[in-house]
Design goal:
single chain, 4-stranded mixed beta sheet, alpha+beta, globular, 2 domains
């Protein structure tokens, strides 16, 4: 079993070796191994069109095995989101979770993508579903929410509520300062 995406377990591999591993994972229908290959290529700045093609093939051939931390579409600032979120500590323990939701701004000059930063006692996917159903929703997620972005904030789960509130606000501010269009982070 490979490590978490934040650890980048394939960091030392050459690009050629990453593509070789990815082909092997596709053949074996190994969604986790394939996800790590794509993730490492993404972190190194591989072409977005190529990443989208690799994602499509992985989802097609290993649907049930692809980890939830791998996004379903390419957006340029994922490596930056990992870098910024990595500056925050996941201490003290509790039931609050920090989550990110990819927002669609393709109809806007601010586009094509932004991020919503939130905090909830629910899992990120449960909270996303609530937003989309209009339950205690943010208008930006209801209208523009595409998918949950789990990877950058895996270490920010199970926090004490007071600490999570501080992290949510500071993470939203830090992502915005880094140049990402941000909503939420109350």
């Amino acid at each position: 079993m490979l490590a978490s995406p934040q650890e980048r377990p394939l960091r030392e591999d050459t690009v050629a070796r990453l593509y070789q591993r990815w082909r092997q994972a596709l053949t074996a229908r190994d969604g986790v191994a394939g996800a790590h290959c794509i993730h490492e290529l993404w972190m190194r700045g591989e072409n977005g069109g190529t990443i989208d093609e690799l994602l499509e093939l992985l989802w097609k051939h290993a649907t049930g095995a692809v980890p939830e931390w791998l996004p379903m579409r390419h957006f340029d600032w994922l490596p930056l989101a990992y870098e910024v979120a990595g500056r925050f500590a996941g201490r003290p323990r509790g039931r609050a979770n920090i989550y990110l939701i990819l927002l669609d701004y393709t109809d806007s000059p601010q586009g094509p993508f932004g991020v919503y930063v939130g905090m909830s006692r629910y899992t990120a996917l449960q909270r996303f579903d609530q937003h989309k159903a209009g339950i205690r929703h943010s208008g930006s997620v209801l209208k523009r929410g595409l998918e949950v972005i789990t990877g950058p904030v895996l270490h920010l789960q199970g926090l004490a509520r007071a600490h999570a509130g501080v992290v949510e606000k500071q993470l939203a501010e830090a992502l915005q300062v880094a140049g990402i269009k941000v909503k939420g982070g109350h």
